[in-house]
């Protein structure tokens, strides 16, 4: 079955998936998935062999509900993930796989720092790829009712990888959310973006760094990466800047930002007509960044604002940028206070998504609107003062 055939299968199964119920008995749920696969054109021997060993994994659900690290603010989170050891190892890997990175830069126009940062954060340069059985993880998360539509297509993608001889239902392991390999790609992404960069006839993302890096680069390219353009850059802002202009959804040209007094902390800004958003992850007293169009592509890889900004910033460090100026941010909120804030914002009609104690993009937008309404600095950084005023 070619990639086009797989996509046809997915489109055929989507109506069935929309009607299928999550939850209920696990074995019955697996049986329904098997019937969907048979409807999609797979033979019974392949389907039975693929699903034969599948088991529900409670540890996957526990991991899914225990992502407290994303509750940390940017400075704490980035300092936790970025160390001198990771910087040094990144430079060593850059030299070791220079040929691969040159090929990536030539083919896709993606700076090596971008791939090195993902490689570092996802698996510590391949050293920690996860020990969860991938099929069990994907089916468990599909059966769970939190995000079934995200994970169900991945099960069928894994089935196609199995049919091709590139997935072992019993032995393929990875992260708790079903990602596989050195840069942690989901099965459907592997099908659509896998590259045999080392020429051995297989796409092996767990054992071949060239395969993993080239596949990750192709995925970023297909997600919309603009070749040979920057992604994020640290800047300084004037004291009198209208903070309401900041935020990922408010973009101006670089020329406009310069006219407002925004300047690069190091190097040069992008071209004057390039669109950029001003990001103040911990308010106007903390670090400041201009986010260029490629920064948006990061959110196609990971939905966490803190993770995305940290990965993008680390990529600049690996490409030679200096460490950011942390400044002196106002005290933020503890996780229980953040949940309280989210409930208050939701009660006022704001869409903050889940009340999870995480300062995500939706919560930031709501915070900024309330800051503006209350006459506080509208920098999207929630403080005890804002919580008290609400």
Blueprint (SSEs and pairs):
Blueprint: H1 3-19, H2 26-39, H3 44-51, H4 58-64, H5 74-81, H6 84-96, H7 98-108, H8 112-123, E1 132-133, H9 134-143, H10 148-163, E2 173-174, H11 187-193, H12 209-222, E3 232-236, E4 251-253, H13 254-259, E5 263-264, E6 275-279, E7 288-291, H14 293-301, H15 305-318, H16 335-347, H17 361-374, H18 384-389
Helix pairs in contact: 1-10, 2-3, 5-15, 6-8, 7-12, 8-15, 9-10, 11-12, 14-15
Give a brief outline of the structure.
It is built from 18 helices and 7 strands. By secondary structure, the protein is mainly alpha-helical.
**Major sheet:** 5 strands, antiparallel
Give helix and strand order, one letter per element, not per position. Answer: HHHHHHHHEHHEHHEEHEEEHHHHH
Task: Assign a percent range to the helix content.
Answer: 40-55%
- Poorly predicted spans: 1-5, 11-19
- Quaternary state reads single chain
- Spatial gap, N to C terminus: 57 Å
Number of discrete helical segments: 18
Structure class:
mainly alpha
Overall pLDDT, averaged? Answer: 92
- The share of residues in extended strands comes to 5-15%
Tell the overall outline.
globular
Query: Using only CA atoms, what is the Rg?
Result: 22 Å
Number of strands: 7
Strand line-up in the sheet with most strands: 4-6-7-3-5
Domain Peptidoglycan binding-like: 336-390
Protein name: Putative lytic murein transglycosylase
GO molecular function: peptidoglycan lytic transglycosylase activity
Signal peptide: 1-20
């Amino acid at each position: 079955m070619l990639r086009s055939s797989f996509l046809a299968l997915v489109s055929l199964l989507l109506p069935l998936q929309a009607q299928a119920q999550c939850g209920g008995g696990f074995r019955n749920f697996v049986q329904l998935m098997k019937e969907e696969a048979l409807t999609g054109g797979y033979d019974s021997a392949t389907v039975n062999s693929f699903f034969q060993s599948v088991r529900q994994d409670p540890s996957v659900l526990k991991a899914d509900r225990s992502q407290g690290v994303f509750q940390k603010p940017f400075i704490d989170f980035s300092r936790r993930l970025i160390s001198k050891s990771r910087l040094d190892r990144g430079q060593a890997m850059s030299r070791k796989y220079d040929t691969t990175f040159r090929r990536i830069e030539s083919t896709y126009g993606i700076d090596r720092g971008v791939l090195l940062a993902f490689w570092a954060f996802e698996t510590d340069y391949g050293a920690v790829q996860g020990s969860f059985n991938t099929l069990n993880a994907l089916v468990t998360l599909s059966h769970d009712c939190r995000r079934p539509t995200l994970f169900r297509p991945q099960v069928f993608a894994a089935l196609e990888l199995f049919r091709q001889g590139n997935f072992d239902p019993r032995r393929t392991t990875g992260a708790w959310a079903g990602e596989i390999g050195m840069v942690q790609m989901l099965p459907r992404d592997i099908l659509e973006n896998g590259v045999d960069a080392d020429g051995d006839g297989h796409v092996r993302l767990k054992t071949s760094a060239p395969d993993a890096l080239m596949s990750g680069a192709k995925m970023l390219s297909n997600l919309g990466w603009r070749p040979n353009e920057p992604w994020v850059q640290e800047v300084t802002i004037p004291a009198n800047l209208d903070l309401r202009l900041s935020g990922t959804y408010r973009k101006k040209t670089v020329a406009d930002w310069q006219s407002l007094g925004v300047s690069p902390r190091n190097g040069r800004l992008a071209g004057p007509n390039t669109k950029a958003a001003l990001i103040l992850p911990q308010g106007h007293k903390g670090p400041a960044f201009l986010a260029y169009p490629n920064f948006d592509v990061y959110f196609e890889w990971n939905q966490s604002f803190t993770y995305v900004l940290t990965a993008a910033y680390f990529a600049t460090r690996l490409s030679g940028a200096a460490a950011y100026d942390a400044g002196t941010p106002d005290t933020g909120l503890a996780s229980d206070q953040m949940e309280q804030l989210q409930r208050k914002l939701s009660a006022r009609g704001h869409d903050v998504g889940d009340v999870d104690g995480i300062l995500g993009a939706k919560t930031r937008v709501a915070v900024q609107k309330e800051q503006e309404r209350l006459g506080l600095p509208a920098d999207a950084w929630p403080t005890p003062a804002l919580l008290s005023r609400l």
